[in-house]
Design a protein that fits this description.
It is found in: Nucleus. Keywords: Nucleus, Transcription. The chain is of the alpha+beta class. It has a domain of 436 residues: Methylamine Dehydrogenase, Chain H. Helix content is 14%, strand content 27%. The chain has 12 helices and 40 strands. Strands 6, 7, 32, 33, 34, 35, 36 and 37 form an 8-stranded mixed β-sheet that branches. Strands 5, 10, 11, 12, 13, 14 and 18 form a 7-stranded mixed β-sheet that branches. The protein is globular.
Length: 809
């Protein structure tokens, strides 16, 4: 008997046959390439493991195997750092070895066997005809080496790191924790001067162009002087039409806590507030002998109306000139016959009158070499008032040039006069007017001028208005418009077309541009940072604005000021707490820093106090890293941003430099009640000896008539209030608090259980302050010898000028 055959117990099935069994591998590869599947053909998997032969030709470009597909390039670009609303054509993240020049390149990043994207170090370049375009570098690992972080953040070359390393060695001392010291300022200026001598006087190779810009060509100064028409103005017409016709007085409360007193402050009259801060209180010792023994020194000026602009003139003289512009009053707006039907935010306003005031602040040398301070024994002087017919003045910028030489006699003048500088003003008529401001050094009285015609008038296109301006160089003016475009004008154009036309126009945003800042060094001049009313901020290279642009979308309030920090090549701006897309648990405003090489990354450098309102003003200096910021509550803070920006060893947090925030002063404003009186009273003495001039006595009757008109204006119904322009500054009382100690900056959220003081359940409510209480403008002095001087303005019309530099060790 034959043995039985052993069979399997598994169920037998028919082997399936497919219709594409006869297709070869090439046909399958074509089908897979045209489909949306992420799978790869067998030949492609083998080619991934095969090394690629890359050779470099004589021109610096690269050749690679022909089998490399363009699809791999597209997939590799998807792993780069992306920003919203950006074109992805020919864009990639560049490594430290690349520079922003016209070098042809193309990146081809491979994927590893696990399917993850390769890093920057694994990228290879291929031949293409496109130009290098960069949107910045991706941030490194938090625990990377400090030397690698410096090269990655600030640049690989010696020129890129020179300013940063020099600032690190100079400005991280304990005495410069929040405000600059005169000793460190002197050392920094001496080092900058030595580097200038070593590298020559050529501004194109001078890394400290932001400290000492080149001289403006005399041909441009002569052109502006010859074209502008300035006529003398009568004293009565000056106050009736261009200045505050009522000349309102203001009361200020000054002094140490618990011993404050109220002092009257007349219109456009400077007052030394240091008299209220003597170090010794002796009734037998006259205050005049305590001039050099006071805690605080500075000047207060009552401008009478909201401060719109403050600008220091860049020049090297004993006297420092400050340009000031206030908001037009309702009386000035009513003087023009044409009715304002369209809002001036996006349409030109009628040319109602306004004024530019030029104040001269005497200075004196200090024991520190090369540093000057305010001469408190000489009062500031209102030397020039120039009346204009161009609406509200929104912004003012001095041409960043060295001191002008005395100009020749013009066709409209009969005597030779020196020139303070070239001043560009932006007004609500939508135009930019450029003037050469004369310096009446020998005139004992205020020189009143009426601007019949500007030296240069830059007009926008017919469907928009200019909203912001800045000087990129002494001859290049950059203007932002209400339609989101940026216009470039060349003041040294040899053709001198009338009216001047922009040589370049680029659309950066889709709506109103609120602020604009240009990088000051020569090799970074094409980089411009802008912010729009939508809250987004953008960095644009004007050489290729369509490709080289980084836009950071932020759901926050528009940034009013952007400051370029030359020490770290960064842009600093404010970030309100509503910038978070989720429900934020803290009501604080931050200062954020955006490096040029990592603009899409926001680094928070300071946190303002809770429930203090948004940041309304910001200012920085080209000579020191101390930043001033003001908020809606009227507080003024200062911090050294280098202590938060410079990298340190992340694995050793104990070696990190601590950052502090210093409250310089706190300003309170309260309106007078209905029973209050706006007249000047003699019940309280002034903090300093003063004499009442004959002019004030003659104007007392006119002042009383103005009070009756103000009382009538206050009785008007609320329906007549202009919602766009707002109301005029109301009569009130101001108070300054000083003497605060620096506090350590803590970016983390602190719950109410750990906060000092009483706990208040505010919920989701927002704190609302009086309009007159907010800080409106801050300005550091741009001159090296007076770099510690700062000017501050509030919406109540109060101006404070103080030397914040100190001699502490």
């Amino acid at each position: 008997m034959s043995p039985r055959t052993r069979r399997s117990g598994r169920e037998r099935k028919v082997n399936p046959k497919y219709a594409n069994d006869g297709w070869d591998k090439d046909t399958l590869r074509i089908l897979r390439a045209s489909s949306e599947s992420s799978g790869s053909s067998p030949d492609e998997e083998q080619r991934i493991e095969k090394p690629e032969n890359v050779t470099q030709d004589a021109e610096g470009s690269f050749d690679e195997d022909d089998d490399a597909s363009d699809a791999s390039d597209i997939q590799s670009q998807a792993s780069d750092v992306q920003t919203p609303n950006e074109d992805e054509d020919n864009m990639s993240v560049v490594s430290d070895g690349h520079t922003l020049g016209n070098v042809p390149f193309r990146t081809n990043r491979r994927r590893s066997a696990t399917g993850t994207g390769a890093g920057v170090g694994n990228s290879t370049t291929t031949t293409t005809t496109s130009t290098i375009h960069s949107r910045g570098l991706a941030p490194l690992n938090a625990k990377g080496a400090k030397s690698l972080v410096y090269h990655h953040m600030f640049g690989p070359d010696v020129e890129d790191l020179e300013d940063t390393l020099d600032a690190r060695d100079t400005w991280l001392l304990g005495r410069d924790v929040t405000l600059p010291s005169r000793k460190t300022l002197s050392i920094a200026l001496q080092r900058a001067e030595q580097r200038r001598r070593d590298k020559g006087s050529d501004s194109s190779t001078n890394p400290n162009f932001h400290i000492l810009p080149p001289r403006l060509p005399e041909s441009i100064v002569d052109l502006i002087l010859n074209r502008q028409i300035l006529k003398p103005l009568e004293h009565q017409e000056l106050y009736e039409r261009y200045l505050h016709r009522h000349r309102p007085s203001h009361s200020v409360v000054l002094g140490p806590f618990g011993r404050q007193q109220q002092y009257p402050l007349d219109y456009n009259f400077p007052m030394d507030f240091g008299w209220a801060w003597p170090k010794f209180r002796d009734a037998e010792v006259d205050q005049a002998s305590q001039t050099g023994q006071r805690y605080h020194e500075g000047w207060l000026i009552n401008a009478g109306e909201k401060i719109n602009c403050l600008a220091w003139a860049p020049q090297q003289q004993d006297a420092q000139y400050l340009a000031m512009a206030t908001r037009c009053t309702s009386h000035q707006r009513r003087q023009h016959e044409k009715e304002e039907n369209l809002r001036a935010a996006f349409h030109p306003s009628p040319p109602y009158p306004s004024a530019i005031q030029i104040w001269a602040f005497p200075t004196k040398p200090t024991p520190t070499p090369g540093i000057r301070t305010i001469a408190m024994n000489l009062k500031p002087k209102l030397c020039t008032v120039m009346g204009t017919e161009c609406g509200n003045i929104r912004a003012m910028r001095w041409c960043p040039s060295t001191q002008m030489t005395p100009s020749t006699t013009t066709a409209t003048s009969t005597a030779t006069a020196s020139t303070i500088g070239i001043l560009a003003i932006l007004s609500t008529d939508g135009k930019v007017h450029v003037f050469a401001i004369p310096a009446q050094l020998t005139s004992p009285v205020v020189v009143a001028l009426k601007a019949e015609r500007a030296g240069l008038t830059l007009s926008p296109p017919g469907d928009t208005v200019f909203t912001t301006l800045t000087f990129a160089t002494p001859t290049d003016l950059i203007l932002g418009a209400a339609d989101g475009t940026v216009h470039l004008f060349d003041l040294s154009d040899p053709d001198h077309v009338d009216p001047p036309r922009s040589y370049a126009t680029h659309r950066i945003h889709n709506t109103y541009i609120t602020s604009l800042s240009a990088a000051s060094p020569v090799h970074l001049a094409p980089f411009v940072a802008t912010a729009s009313s939508a809250g987004d901020i953008a960095l644009t290279d004007l050489r290729a604005p369509a490709q080289d642009k980084v836009t950071v979308t932020r759901a926050c309030f528009p940034a009013r000021d952007i400051h370029f920090a030359p020490f770290t090549r960064s842009f600093i701006t404010g970030l309100d707490r509503v910038g978070s897309t989720r429900m934020d648990t803290q009501s604080a405003t931050f200062l954020s820093c955006h490096h040029v090489r990592q603009f899409h990354v926001s680094l928070r450098i300071a946190k303002l106090p809770d429930q203090a309102g948004t940041a309304t003003a910001l200012s920085g200096s080209p000579h020191h890293p101390c930043v001033l910021v003001g908020n809606a509550r009227g507080q003024l803070h200062a911090t050294n941003y280098l202590r938060k920006v410079l990298p340190y060893r992340r694995n050793d947090p104990g070696k990190a430099v601590q950052a502090y925030l210093q409250k310089v002063c706190e300003y309170d404003w309260r309106p007078l009640t209905s029973t209050g009186n706006t007249k000047r009273t003699a019940t309280t003495a002034s903090p300093e000896p003063r004499q009442v001039s004959q002019t004030e006595d003659d104007d007392e009757e006119e002042y009383d008539d103005g009070e009756e008109e103000e009382a009538e204006a206050e009785t008007k119904p609320e329906t007549e209030i202009d919602l766009f322009h707002g109301h005029d500054v109301r009569p009130g009382v101001s108070r300054f608090h000083e003497g605060f100690k620096p506090e350590k900056i803590n970016m983390a959220y602190m719950p109410d259980s750990k906060k000092k003081g009483p706990h208040k359940d505010t919920g989701a409510a927002e704190v609302i302050f009086e309009e007159e209480q907010g800080v409106t403008v801050l300005e550091w002095n741009p001159n090296p010898s007076c770099a510690g001087m700062a000017a501050m303005g509030w919406a109540s019309g109060m101006v404070r000028v103080q030397d914040l530099a100190h001699d502490l060790e």
